[in-house]
Amino acid sequence: MRLVIIGAGFAGMYAALSSARLRDIKGVTPGELEIMLVAPEPTLVVRPRLYEPKPETLTAPLLDVFKAIDVTYVRGTAESVETPRRSVVVATPEGGRRSINYDRLVIATGSRLFRPNVPGLAQHAFSVDSLEDAVALDGHLKSLASRPASDARNTVVVAGGGFTGLEAATEMPARLRAVLGENVKTRVIIADRNTAIAPDMGAGPRPVIEEALRTLGVETRLGAGIVALDETSVTLSSGERIETATVIWAAGIRAAPLTAQVPGERDNFGRLVVDRELRVVGVPSVFATGDAARAACDDDGNYALMSCQHATRMGAFAGNNAAAELLGEAPTPYHQKAYVTCLDLGEAGALFTRGWDRKVEHVGADAKKIKQEINTVWIYPPKPMRAAALASADPQRVTDL
User: Fold this and answer.
1) Organism's domain of life (predicted)?
2) Are 11 and 81 contained in the same domain?
3) What are the tens digits of pLDDT across the range 266-286?
4) How many CB atoms lie under 10 A from the CB of residue 149?
């Protein structure tokens, strides 16, 4: 029997750990149930931190973890899923193609930044969506020091006032000072088509966010999106033109394109609709998890968000349940009733909320300590020691803050 997992992000990593855990509990050998993970690199990119400086350091190796738990790693990119044949076609680094058959499949391919057809966007915008994108942005910011002083050089425009946009924008004043010096007047501007900053956060946390933006001197242009950009400026839907050499696009994400290969229902974000045990509805033997899945968290109408907080726990349930079907065990319905947000606000601290109504619990320096612990400890892979690694992936115990 073979269980194949596509993706080495938070959901894929925990799917591998959890399925290996159940296999171990049942006393089944890797020869009887092979667990195989397909990804371009055996590395976890710590994506929630890519707005920070030195993004090239924000990865964690996974190969030793996979070896410790007897998970077979396949280097390559899954190009297609052929569900009638129960096979995945993988493009190898050498340029070849490999077909891998599966008995159960877990799609944990994550998400990608949504890039609409805005003139100049593909050529001139940066992002913190992937490691490569974040490294390119970091290099660009460092290069600003060699340019002649100008309003364009000294101005950063962030497109999107949601979670990612806010974390990128509030980090920018310090990053610009580090590059250009303490005495250079810089500007950071958030442009968002919504009429309020952080629309998904709700009214409760918003005053904290607005105060942080004022403290940092971050400007906002609400009710106005970017409609065009070039090397030295952006034009907003309001007609305003802002001189800038640095545009960071953070205006939404969509499920990775591979989900379109699966003949299941998808939502507006491209996520596959799954049942409570994370099976893709109407597609036998296929599970989806993390940002690839639209999954109910509870019985109150709340659905998992596209975040590592939900991906880690969903991954543990998906891996466990896929293995359970093969081993004749009862699956465990996914549930994640607890929900928190911890929003980094740069030198203004952070904001920690609890619950779907986002009750503010910590702000400023206190919240910043929590954020730093989350970013540097909680979201990293377990150490490559078999017993501890497997124990970390109990779906009933994976962090539910």
Assistant:
1) Bacteria
2) yes
3) 999 999 999 999 999 999 999
4) 11
